[in-house]
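Entry 12.
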Amino acid sequence: MSVVTIKNQEDRNDVMMWVSDLYKDVYGIRPRYYNFNAFSNAELAHFVNELIEEREREAQLESEAVEKAIISRTNTIYI
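Predicted 3D structure (tokens):
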């Protein structure tokens, strides 16, 4: 798992460019009602790291479901 840290304005600007895309990857919609400019660097980093963790959990669940479906499909006998 990658951990995002925001140490300076350059780091913050970088995160601000893709945080909306990350949120959309996780929840399927763009974030609304978030004022990311009001977040401190620590708050923004925490928010982004939680999104990354959620995205990784979802990817793991999807991978397990695909594997289970493949196993189920290969164990099916057609008559």
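Annotation: The CA atoms of residues 2 and 78 lie 44 Å apart. Helices lie at 9-27, 41-74.
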